[in-house]
Q: What sequence folds into this?
């Protein structure tokens, strides 16, 4: 079994110490950077399996680091570490391509679960899926080709992130069925028994609508059921 490597980008030394200790105890190797520029460099050169990224960093902040990693075409999972109550930070981070965030002060158990889930998700994507029949969903204007890992609307490829594609595929392959945010966290984000913050689902749905819907303010595909969750319908 290959050892997974986690890059810690955090300028607070005591937090780095706690993270390193717990990650190594769980069998991970760690790389550390105490500023944004070094963090970015290690992210690009060392290809870690996951990046833990603080936002407030000397030199280059976490947002810029995350955005640059994505601009360089790297899909390494990025888990943002953010201060409590900074709701805008979370949304902006997810918009810039982060996969997830965790709020300081965080519980080590919760953090380890998140790290594991995000690394496992990537592992499952790269494994061959011969057992699963590749799904081809044709909704007329909208087509989802799971074999090609591609969604198309009116003949044009949609530029979806992997997570957006998975979310769309999951909802669309269960057309008409309403899923709660918790259920989507478990099915698409792989968080087993998830009970925490489900804002990531709303952000992903909003971004997906911007790419899929004619008018994101009046969605015809990805529908909100107030107090229940989201469903896919083919009304485009
Ligand atoms: Ca900091």
A:
């Amino acid at each position: 079994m290959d050892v997974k490597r986690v890059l810690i980008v955090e300028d607070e030394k005591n937090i780095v110490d706690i993270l390193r200790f717990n990650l190594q105890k769980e069998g991970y190797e760690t790389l550390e950077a105490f500023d944004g520029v070094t963090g970015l460099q290690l992210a690009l050169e060392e290809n870690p399996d996951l990046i833990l990224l603080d936002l407030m960093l000397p030199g280059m902040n976490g947002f810029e680091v995350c955005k640059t990693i994505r601009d360089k075409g790297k899909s390494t999972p990025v888990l943002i570490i953010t201060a409590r109550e900074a709701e805008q930070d979370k949304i902006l981070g997810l918009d810039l391509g982060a996969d997830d965030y965790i709020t300081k002060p965080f519980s080590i158990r919760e953090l380890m679960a998140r790290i594991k889930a995000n690394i496992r998700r990537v592992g499952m994507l790269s494994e061959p899926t011969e057992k699963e029949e590749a799904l081809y969903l044709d909704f007329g204007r909208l087509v989802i080709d799971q074999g090609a890992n591609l969604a198309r609307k009116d003949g044009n490829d949609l530029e979806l992130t992997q997570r957006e594609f998975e979310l769309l595929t999951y909802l669309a392959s269960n057309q008409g069925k309403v899923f709660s945010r918790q259920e989507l966290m478990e099915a698409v984000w792989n968080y087993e028994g998830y009970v925490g913050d489900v804002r990531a689902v709303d952000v992903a749905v909003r971004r997906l609508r911007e790419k899929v819907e004619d008018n994101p303010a009046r969605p015809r595909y990805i529908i909100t059921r107030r107090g229940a969750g989201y469903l896919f319908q083919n009304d485009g």
Q: What stands out?
A: Residues 11-12, 54, 56-57 surround calcium ion (CB under 6 Å). The two ends are 46 Å apart (CA to CA). The mean pLDDT is 87. The longest strand covers residues 78-83.
